[in-house]
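On clarity, I found the account of how folds are encoded harder to follow than it need be. What matters is that the chain and its backbone geometry are given together, residue for residue. The format is easy to grasp once an entry is in front of the reader. For illustration, here is how one protein appears when written out as sequence plus structure tokens.
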Amino acid sequence: MSTPIDSIAISRAFLAPERPFDRWHSHYARWKLAHDPLYPGVLPLLRDDPHPLLDLGCGIGLLAHVLRGAGATQPYKGVDFDATKIARARDAATRKQLRDVAFDTADLSLGVPMHHGSVSILDMLQYLPEPLQSNVVSGAIACLAPGAQLVIRTGLEDSSARSRITDVTDRIGHRIGWMRSAPQRYPRRETLTGMLESAGLEVAWQPHLGRNLFNNWLVSARRPA
């Protein structure tokens, strides 16, 4: 049974009384949660996962709000290299009194933070150059505890029209200032599958297209208990 996501309540957490005219993050949160299938797709994978979760490239921390709204209680830590987004994430989490939730800035080019549990990488790999993509995925794999999982949503590099539309949309996101980096390269499915399976993980892929034209895929890679 799916758990509804209260996009309005979550978006209000990003309305800061000290910044009455700053509504950008609130509007973004409401639109993202209402229209992107990302969180309804990820939530069933992570809601009942008891392992501490490291969210790489967490942005403004929407995953933490979605998990707590669904009753999930695992410790959550989100990291992102955009200090402004981390500041907004902290403010909103404090305003909503989210328990056992933390945020920090991190430069993944220097390595994945130490962690032992599950890891999520959502809509982030394409902003990293190919060698760094591999380093981040390898670092995330090294963090997995027995029975824990690595959950990834990403576009894929292929010859489809969806792939081209995804790339154009991500570049627009960079030009309007939402993403500090332009997309570098989308992962190839065979490369990503090879990395995950060679680490002994149980890998499941599913298309995650939703009501849009993006070439998104959802991957769950679990370390056997």
About this structure: The chain is about 40% helix and 15% strand. The first strand starts at residue 53 and ends at 56.
